[in-house]
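PT: before anyone asks, these are the final sequences, not the draft ones from last week. 431 residues across everything. Please model them as a single complex and drop the result in this thread when it's through.
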Amino acid sequence: MLSGIIYTARDQAHKRLVEAIKKGNKLPIDVKGQVIYYCGPTRTPKGKIIGSCGPTTSSRMDEFTPALLKKGVLAMIGKGRRSQRVIYAIKKYKAVYFLTYAGCGALLSKYIKNAGPVAYKDLGPEAIYKLEARDFPVIVGVDTKGRSIYD
Amino acid sequence: MKVISADKIRDALSELCIRANLVLRKDILSGLKSAYSKEAKRRAKDILQAIINNAYIAGKEKLAICQDTGLPCVFVELGQGVKIVGDLKQAINKGVESGYKKGFLRNSIVKDPLLRGKSVYQPAIIHIDMVKGNKLKLTVLPKGFGCENKTQLKMFNPTAKISEIERFIVDAVKSAGPDACPPYVVGVGIGGTADYASLLAKKALLRKIERKGLIPKGTVPVFEQELLSEINKLNIGPMGLGGRTTCLGVNIETYPTHIAGLPVAVNISCHALRSATMTL
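LR: through. Structure below.
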């Protein structure tokens, strides 16, 4: 179970972050030591902290992940397999890839205690949200030694 | 002649979008419960329990079952005796937008597939079928794209063996693997043309997965059961972490085809197979 700050980022946010890295621009959030959650939540209903917020398919982020790991990302949360290149980078930078309950966005919203967009707000559901998680359920998908749960 | 106003259609669509996204289909929920009782592995059971709990929380707290509230696919069966006052397609899209906004569902549509841009609530994918009678049947299937991305189509030779078709369908599920939220429901379209087989595969997902009593004789229901059993031998399991439940049900729709071909389309759905229907 994870407790603490996690940042959401999915396809378009990844594309922008990696473009910024390539250009040598400052990133809108300091990713060093952070956890990135592949998630684009639904809009927040009145009186709730966040809407439905489950994981999206991780493999779509594969082409961008090594660059972010190089920048110091500590862990990622998503669903499904990762490419060999990502697994190699996870091992190289001693990071971790977690899985969480896929297709259970309503359930997972219960583990979020605070939430709000912090960057790329124009992307709507694909903006980067800062979430404060408590006891967020995860399973290790790829460990720091590059061992995958699917092997 | 029955007269139905565009406003009434808009309101129906709005309600259907919310219902489909918040309340899990009964046949899917009972499929999940029966899978839970059949699973032996602790982890597979725990994941199925989380999926069942998720459905209860969604219904009770009016939260979307899944944050991917999909690309809404709208199936319209328009009776020939119905007169619609107003613009049907506009009413559908307005209803979808209103439902998605009211239900706090996600705006997951980009206006331009290449330029992408800001995400919006519509247009929906609309299929209109003219039928006999004076009723208007509306069905919404919000299709998430984790699983839509795993769609496959193959144009077989007309001499292809059933076993080759079976291999193709099982392999389509195998290649989706753990990525698209298993346990899956597999929709298969056989026959017609390439585009029609794809539509049939999607429509197959609208049918209940429950099979009560004995399996009726005939090629298709038997083939569905064989496929289900073969797919469940893949050991992909809930969340792709192993188990007996890789698939909750296989539905096949067929249509006549050309002497020179045999199109087969596979449309996979995640465990959150959502749809809702209303007849006006």
